[in-house]
Write a structure and sequence with these properties.
The chain has about 375 residues and is of the alpha/beta class. It folds into two domains: about 15-200 and about 360-375, Rossmann fold; about 205-350, DNA Methylase, Chain A, domain 2. It has 13 helices and ten strands. The strands form two sheets. Strands 1, 2, 3, 4, 5, 6, 7 and 8 form an eight-stranded mixed sheet that branches. Strands 9-10 form a two-stranded antiparallel ribbon. Strand 2, helix 2 (about 45-50) and strand 3 form a beta-alpha-beta unit. Helix 1 runs parallel beside helix 13, helix 4 runs parallel beside helix 5 (about 140-145) and helix 11 (about 330-340) runs parallel beside helix 12 (about 350-360). The chain is globular.
């Protein structure tokens, strides 16, 4: 475990389960929560999360083996005072592109999320998953999970959220389960979470100011490149600034602020035949060999995939083709399309970086939903 600073007793606290690299954590921090602890079993993800959230405690543990008592103790939170339990339990067993089996043992981790709700009794919970979790074949495990919630909690019907409706440049659609203790949180309904007065951000806006990638940029140091300024917009402000207190890698932030340099511009070496095929693709068209689809700069990025972990063969996810160059996108371009700021750090390799990005909740979506909740707790 990586220790953290002492908690401010006047701050609303949150613990992030299945935290990954921290998309939901960043949304929570920007919404005003102190992410006191993150739990993530993937060793690369938890170290990257720690680099971005140096003031949080980090547990590289299996959630199934954690008790609420232990988690509160490690997070430095007194029993009965936790504001929020957030997280995205593994979705592979529920996903439409996975094995889609209700017997997938990872599905039980959804039950564990709600078990910890019952043990820690936070003021609210917010759990994210794929739309497939609502399929009839998953009804039993979902009912088992939700039955663990304390009886006095109000549970909303699942929120189906399309990221592009909330100001992110991706059409990624996910389900959020929200519930709260009515003695500690004001009444909220579906209508409170509906997107309002949100800036429309497209691929063109997301990739603005980024350098032309060279295939030879293969090392971590080569991946640091200067970026151009963006037009005045909410998205630009989110990408370039708005660093929550105690969040961010100080060296990466300093390099960005002082030199305008950002990491993650790793190139991909393609065969000449692949480049030739990519060059002929129109917006939204898929390459018949690689199955990579070309981004439409006037549209939204489709859902970025994470690929598989070592236990499933370590297959790299198919990446989109850049809208104006005959190549797949770099990790930093993927991060922009997912709604991450330029100062946020990812693993220095393409494989792990894209796994971290593809597994993440868009921080733009997370912030919007959690800001609604934060305001209901004031």
């Amino acid at each position: 475990m990586i220790k953290k600073k002492k908690q401010n007793p006047n701050t609303l606290t949150a613990i992030d389960l299945f935290a990954g690299v921290g998309g939901l954590s960043l949304g929570a921090a920007r919404a005003g929560f102190d992410v006191t602890c993150a739990v993530e079993i993937d060793k690369h993800a938890v170290l990257t999360h720690a680099a971005n959230f140096p003031n949080s405690a980090h547990l590289a543990d299996d959630v199934h083996a954690l008790s609420g008592e232990k988690l509160l103790k490690e997070a430095g939170v007194s029993p009965g005072t936790l504001s929020g339990l957030i997280g995205g339990p593994p979705c592979q067993g529920f996903s439409a592109i996975g094995l889609r089996t209700a017997a997938d043992p990872r599905n039980n981790l959804l039950v564990d999320f709600f078990r910890l709700v019952s043990e820690m009794k936070p003021a609210f919970f917010l759990a994210e998953n794929v739309p497939g979790v609502l399929d009839a074949r998953n009804a039993a495990v979902l009912e088992k999970a939700k039955s663990r919630v304390p009886k006095n909690y109000v549970q909303l019907e699942p929120l189906i959220v399309k990221a592009s409706d909330y100001g992110a440049p991706t059409s990624r659609t996910r389900v959020f389960f929200y519930g709260y203790d009515p003695n500690r949180v004001a009444v909220l309904t579906h209508d409170n979470f509906a997107a309002r007065d949100v800036e429309d951000v497209r691929v063109r806006n997301a990739l603005a100011g980024l350098p032309s990638i060279r295939a030879k940029w293969q090392s971590e140091e080569q991946s640091w490149r200067a970026v151009g300024e963006l037009d005045d917009s909410d998205f630009a402000d989110s990408v370039t600034d708005r660093v929550p207190f105690g969040v961010g890698n100080k060296d990466a932030i300093a390099r960005f602020k002082e030199k305008g340099e950002v990491s993650g511009f790793l190139g991909t070496i393609h065969k000449h035949s692949t480049i030739k095929r990519f060059d002929t693709l129109g917006p939204g068209e898929a390459d018949p060999v690689s199955k990579c689809t070309r981004l439409d700069e006037d549209g939204y990025c489709p859902t970025l995939r994470a690929g598989t972990g070592p236990e499933r063969g370590s297959y790299q996810a198919i990446r989109p083709v850049h809208p104006n160059s005959p190549r797949v996108i770099s990790p930093r371009e993927g991060a922009r399309l997912q709604g991450f700021p330029d100062w946020f750090q990812f693993h220095p390799t393409k494989w792990h970086a894209f796994r971290q990005i593809g597994n993440s909740v868009s921080p733009i979506v997370g912030e919007y939903l959690l800001r609604v909740i934060h305001e209901a707790m004031q």
